[in-house]
Amino acid sequence: MKKINVQEYGIIEGKKEKENTLYLRKILEEFGNKSNVEIFFPRSDYHFYPEYAYEELMYISNHDDDTIKRVVFNLKEMENIVIKGENSNFIFHTEEMPFYLYKCNNIKIEGITIDYERSTFSEGIAEYVDSHTVRMFIEIARIF
User: Fold this and answer.
1) How far apart are alpha carbons 92 and 128 in whole angstroms?
2) In the chain, how many H helices and how many E strands?
3) How far is CA 3 from CA 39, 49, 107, in A?
4) Residue 136: what are its φ and ψ, rounded to 5°?
5) How far is Cα 117 from Cα 48, in angstroms, rounded to an integer?
């Protein structure tokens, strides 16, 4: 099995680098159609943004409309791929889908956690309400 260390292909750990998505996309385009490939993420935090993500019109159940979705790990029609981390954290930003698996065979994803820097929806506590004012407490800080 060919092992690809993402840090050797430009992906930067720990920092909020928008280009990580671009470098990942290049790795998947170059190696994704080859058999027996492991894409390896050494232990760290990795940030991914939608600017260079794969885009496709998709229907997702429980959503109102068919819209263009941005996907960071586009594994469409790929096979024999391992995405492997060492307890690595993938942190996504805004409304992007982490993974898209369509018509795939033998895909393994292990050793990672997935989170968003800020969730799409927020919960709040109404602290004060009158006829003209609503004061809400919304927790937005996250620690990684």
Assistant:
1) 33
2) 1, 10
3) 6, 24, 15
4) -115, 145
5) 10
Distance CA(19)–CA(98), nearest Å, equals 15
Q: What is the pTM of this model?
A: 0.80
Q: How far is CA 81 from CA 4, 22, 87, 99, in A?
A: 11, 19, 18, 13
CB atoms inside a 10 Å sphere around CB 16: 13
- Which amino acid makes up residue 85? G
Name the band, by pLDDT with cuts 50, 70 and 90, for residue 142.
Answer: low
d(CA 16, CA 52): 14
More confident residue, 105 or 62: 105
Residues with Cβ < 8 Å from 133, sequence gap 6 or more?
none
* CA atoms 142, 69, 88, 101: torsion sign: positive
**pLDDT given for residue 32 in this prediction:** 84
Give the confidence band of 117 by pLDDT, cuts at 50, 70, 90: confident
